[in-house]
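Weekly modeling sync, notes
Attendees: S.R. (lead), two postdocs, one rotation student

Agenda item 3: backlog of single-chain predictions. S.R. asked that every request posted to the team notebook include the full sequence so nobody has to chase files. The rotation student volunteered to paste the first one in as an example of the format we agreed on. Action items at the bottom.

Example entry:
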Amino acid sequence: MPPIDTAVPLLLLWAVIGYGFGSIPFGLLLTRIMGLGNLRDIGSGNIGTTNVLRTGSKKAAALTLLLDGGKGAVAVLLARAFAGEDAAQLAGLTAFLGHCFPIWLRFQGGKGVATFLGLMLALAWPVGVACCLTWLATAYFSKISSMGAIMSAVAAPFWCLLLGAPATAVLASVLAALILLRHKENILRLRLGTEPKIGQK
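Predicted structure, as returned to the notebook:
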């Protein structure tokens, strides 16, 4: 373990790198490159996968899901390889924050679900797989993307404890709380029964 006087700057460096990866707005970039219009003017205006799907392009939505998840995973894996587990968890957190609050978009980003799943897969792959399956099963049966996201996030800390990754449980809890906050309007609509279903504009 590096001495404190070098460990802190190293952690800060990976926090910045993680934020940089997370803040790349793939959904916005892909829809522009593919000629699908300004994502900010479509549906909810969100830059994430669910709103990209509202453009009618499943290809763009799939690419957004993979790239938003990938940037979280890459941030974690690079930080772990070069600076250890503490840096990996910090990079994962800041990658998530970068997606939700990108400086390039005046801190108006996505809700972080794909990035969350990607970084969980990189931090502890059994937990990540369990979270992905929780999202898929919930979304499949409810036909509501936000329901899948919420259930996956809430289940994450429990999956960490059940699947032998207790060191990741704290981070998972923090991310779950942030995801719930980012979905507060969705939660209200779910209570009112007005939350749109997957693919619905």
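Discussion: group reviewed the output briefly. The chain has one domain: 4-192.
Action items: rotation student to repeat for the remaining queue; S.R. to check formatting next week.
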